[in-house]
Amino acid sequence: MSILINKSTRVIVQGITGRDGLFHALKMKEYGTDVVGGTSPGKGGTLIEHIPVFNTMYDAVQQTQANTSIIFVPARFAADAIMEAADAGIELIVCITEGIPTLDVIKAYRFVQLKGAKLIGPNCPGLISPGESLVGILPGKVFTKGHTGVLSRSGTLTYEVVYHLTAKGVGQSTAVGMGGDPVVGLYFRDLLEMFENDPETHSIVMIGEIGGNAEELAAEYIREHVTKPVVGFIAGQSAPPGKQMGHAGAIISGGSGSAIEKIRALEEAGIRVASEPSEIPELLKVSF
Amino acid sequence: MKIHEYQAKKFFSDYGIPVERHILCNKPEEVTAAFSQLGNEKVAIKAQVLTGGRGKAGGVKLAGNAGEALQHAESILGMTIKDYPVTRVIVSEAVNIHLEYYVSFVIDRNSRSVVLMMSAEGGMDIEEVARRSPEKIFHFRIDPLIGIPDYLARRFAFTLFASSAQVNQMAAIIQNMYRLFIEKDTSLVEINPLVMTREGVLIAIDAKMTFDDNALYRQPGVLSLFEPTEEEKTETQAKEKGFSYVHMGGEIGCMVNGAGLAMATMDLIKLYGGNPANFLDIGGSSNPEKVIEAMKLLLKDKQVKVVLINIFGGITRCDDVVYGLLKAFEQIDTDIPVIVRLTGTNEAEGRDLLRNTRFKVAETMGEATLMAVEASNKQ
What we know:
The complex is a heterodimer. By secondary structure, chain A is an alpha/beta fold. Helix content of chain A is 34%, strand content 23%. Chain A has helices at residues 19-31, 57-64, 75-87, 102-114, 156-167, 188-197, 214-225, 259-268, 280-287; strands at 10-14, 34-39, 47-48, 51-54, 68-71, 92-95, 118-120, 126-129, 133-136, 145-152, 172-177, 203-209, 230-235, 272-273. In chain A, the strands form two sheets. Chain A has a seven-stranded mixed sheet with strand order 3-4-2-1-5-6-7, sandwiched between helices. In chain A, strands 9-8-11-10-12-13-14 form a seven-stranded mixed sheet, with helices on both faces. Chain A starts with 9 loop residues before the first strand and ends with a helix. The radius of gyration of chain B is 26 Å and the shape is elongated. Helix content of chain B is 38%, strand content 26%. Classes of the chains: A alpha/beta, B alpha+beta.
């Protein structure tokens, strides 16, 4: 088992005729994901690399019974794409697009909530349940099936961490890149709860970074509600205050959001925090 | 993106949020004229800088006559506050302050919404109030689908005021601030302090606004106010080319794909006893041209003694990065040691291309970082 996606996940690629959309549609298919269609307004009724294209998400969902979508459309249209997916009845919306205005995300997120759907991202690498389904741009080869749940605010840092896990024989149930923007959909608390309730997940790796106080809140949540061992890693210990470090959400502001505070909060909640990614597999084994 | 107080006050005025009368001055002698133009007994001379803490730095002074105003203007206009030279001041009428309040709209990550924050503890550092007595700050989440209808504005206003004279003013201020927040794509609109004068009138005597960089494409009026520092100019240039750069000041130049991995690389350099020269995320694409541009930018920093390249290929193909590197070093004349770590998509092809070149290849991030720190110590 896994969380959020599995063998019965049926995916629509929003923006499938774009360069990135098509490239990753094929990568996902190659991994074994059930990519049932794509959208591109005006190109409905055609096929692209044997994948049916629809004009609207409404048509796509009606005709394919898709339950999941992944968004590659440009930033200024992406919030609209999120709402279109939610309105069409998609249950899980994964938004890869980077650079969407925050207020657009806030509005789209509210709409997603009202429709009872879930959003991952924006500005995220997506998620993978190894051996079952990949909905995102993560390199499938790095991952291996197993019992550790991974949640992260970053993309390549997740690959780095998972690379060490896989090398040490620690497989993953599901790995989720939550996104690097200030406002994103599913976050630490939601995913921790899902991993805690997933019988196939036996331990959790949580990768945070500077900015906001979500890691601190997660630490509190873990202390009270999570019985499975958790190992943490926080990026940005050397980051100067007031500077945005690549991700729109990675900024230490008004004296809060620093790595030191986050690490302290995690340790106080009894979570082991690795000082470098290669330490994580060891700490996981000790935690059991 | 940040703007000056006087610019924020222009937005406030445009949106019907009351501000005190003020005049912008670039030179001390203009201040004398401004003083008589305002015709007030007392004025405040306030430094216009894109950073906080100007009051503590002596950038705000009261003056009771033209001579005093000139004297203060002369000292403030020569100041540097947290590395920002003061080139402008405003001369504003000093109002009769009875009480001071705090009001702001901010983006709240945890509730994923815009939040209105208000407090009767105005005029001081709000983070300090939050630490000391969080119960003195009211928070209200705004539903983006309905905004702030009249009944909500009234309800919020009644938390700070009892008399309808102030409640009506406050409700209008709240609604106008929210409209400004949304229409200009801001991430913060703050009044600290909002004062009630002895006459019972509410006025914003300070104004702070920051804007969402992701939305600047549709806010040309805001973008035209952008005053980048030298550092920000470099960062903006980098952004236009599709990567993010932040200068750090150490000796080990880094080029990494992905923001999280780039931060983790800097952290590891520190952990191993070195000092990162920069944060540089070349992003997801592996266009060789981008690698060339990134290397040029990185090597402009003359403090860089060693370069550490850490690539985890997912979307980024390792061999594409190597093509870019090889090309870049055909154009760049330097004998700086370059350490390369490649893992992931097409790593074998990438490593093959690096064989018999000037680049030192490492297997893991840890090994690469160690090599970089050792090399920088030797230089």
